[in-house]
């Protein structure tokens, strides 16, 4: 899982989406995008410009988010892109991915929705591992045409609804020293059980999450009782934990990290189209560890 082509991390807010725009602007042949929500005029204009240059631009937008996505859908179709609503075989197409020129993939925790950029903690990984790129493109083509497909995992991919839950449980269950968790949602009982079990076997488990309406009070209380350290954010107008991350055993030879679109919910893990990856790249691990430490410190600690 230490992917040779999986190692460039974008951390939001702060880094900006200039690298994503640059990849779109530099495309020579094709852009394939799956996006749960798209409301970013810069990205939309860049996609339209790529289509005008003759690139094949294909976009899947989540059909249950039509109120959010209709403007982008109409704009892109009017400017030469091929746009499809997501397949109804998934509850949501919550995946956030771009593939540029059959050679570079961007796997995001963030939607391309510009109004959230300044306040949301999110991540994106630039992945050029050929096996990953090929697997993502194969699934994209099937989803675009609404054809059935069993996703391939490439070098280090994690797909919902295919294998996300067992892979994430294996990552948690294999931790021996530490777990750092970013969680927007914490409603999946199986994941909670795995975190409790990790804490009880002596793993230092830290969760940095969202709890805006107190909907995860019960989950956080249960985790804390088992020894999990919980820090959370709850301001509707402030900093928002939107990233989905599991970093295991940082600082050891076995360290690895999951980054992706999957939330800890049964809908996300079992019924949505989602995509993440697991990597052992040292630069990614280091960046996540430093960012997490600061966010955990600033959050409200349970109880």
List the topology elements:
Elements: E1 6-12, H1 18-25, E2 30-35, E3 38-39, H2 41-52, E4 56-61, H3 66-78, E5 82-85, E6 96-100, E7 104-108, E8 112-113, E9 120-127, H4 130-144, E10 157-160, H5 164-174, E11 178-183, H6 189-200, E12 204-210, H7 217-225, E13 229-233, E14 240-241, E15 244-248, E16 256-260, H8 266-270, E17 274-279, H9 282-298, E18 300-301
Parallel strand pairs: 2-4, 3-8, 4-5, 9-14, 11-12, 12-13
Antiparallel strand pairs: 1-9, 2-6, 6-7, 7-9, 10-17, 11-15, 13-18, 15-16, 16-17
Account of the 3D structure:
The chain is an alpha/beta fold and 303 residues long. The chain folds into two domains: 6-155, Endonuclease, Chain A (2-Layer Sandwich); 164-301, Endonuclease Chain A (Endonuclease, Chain A). It has helices spanning 18-25, 41-52, 66-78, 130-144, 164-174, 189-200, 217-225, 266-270, 282-298, and strands at 6-12, 30-35, 38-39, 56-61, 82-85, 96-100, 104-108, 112-113, 120-127, 157-160, 178-183, 204-210, 229-233, 240-241, 244-248, 256-260, 274-279, 300-301. The strands form three sheets. Strands 1, 2, 4, 5, 6, 7, 9 and 14 form an eight-stranded mixed sheet that branches. The protein has an eight-stranded mixed sheet with strand order 10-17-16-15-11-12-13-18, with helices on both faces. Helix 1 (18-25) packs parallel to helix 2 and helix 5 (164-174) packs parallel to helix 6.
